[in-house]
Every structure is written in structure tokens, then in C-alpha cells.
Amino acid sequence: MSISHYLLRILIREEMEYMGKHMGSGSRHLGSSSGAEVEIDARLEDLKTIEGEIHYLENTPTQMGQHGDLDRIHNLKARKADLEQQIKELQGVL
Questions:
Q1: Among 8, 16, 86, 88, which residue's Cα sits nearest to residue 48?
Q2: Who's near 25: CB < 8 A, 6+ residues apart?
Q3: pLDDT tens-digit profile of 42-87?
Q4: Backbone phi, then psi, for 65, in 5-degree steps?
């Protein structure tokens, strides 16, 4: 992989991580939400970040991929399933 492809891949990954962390992070009023709702919001943000990373890795051209990306996708999907289960459990509390 040429250095320009490598740098482009790093730039795209950083942009995806930044967008995942800061999308929808408006002001929150913790006093107006129950503890479960705050936890659900936090889990949903994590879920959006993980979904963005999965989407990025699955749509990265093979020649731009790195060794271990398939394992990373598998781990991210497992984490996504875990977060979805946690969200369902917290919604049961409400």
C-alpha cells in the first residue's frame, strides 16, 4: 500500500471516530432525565460510534485494508450486540 493510501485511510478513520464521538452531542439536562435514560443515551452514542466503525471497515477497499481488520469487525459486531442488549435491559427499567 502506498504512503498516500495509508495516510488517506488514517485520515478517514480519524474523521469517522470524530464524527461518531461528536454527532448528536448537544446539551443534556441531567436533572430532567432518570438515571436509566442517561445510561441509554450514553449507550446509544457508543452504538453509533461502533456502527460507524463497522460501516467504514466493511466499505474499505480490500487493497487499503490492514491485517486484522476482519477480527476487528468481528469484535465490533460482538460489542454492538452487547450494547443493544444493555439498551434493551435499561429500557425495561423505564
A1: 16
A2: 45
A3: 889 989 999 989 888 888 777 677 778 888 889 999 999 998 998 8
A4: -70, 165
DSSP three-state, residue 65: coil
**What would the pLDDT profile of 75-90 be if each residue is shown by its tens digit?**
999 999 998 998 888 8
Write down the domain spans for the chain. 3-93
Q: Say which amino acid occupies 45.
A: E
Amino acid code (one letter) for 69:
D
Cα dist from 54 to 26, 30, 42, 88, 93, whole Å: 24, 30, 19, 21, 29
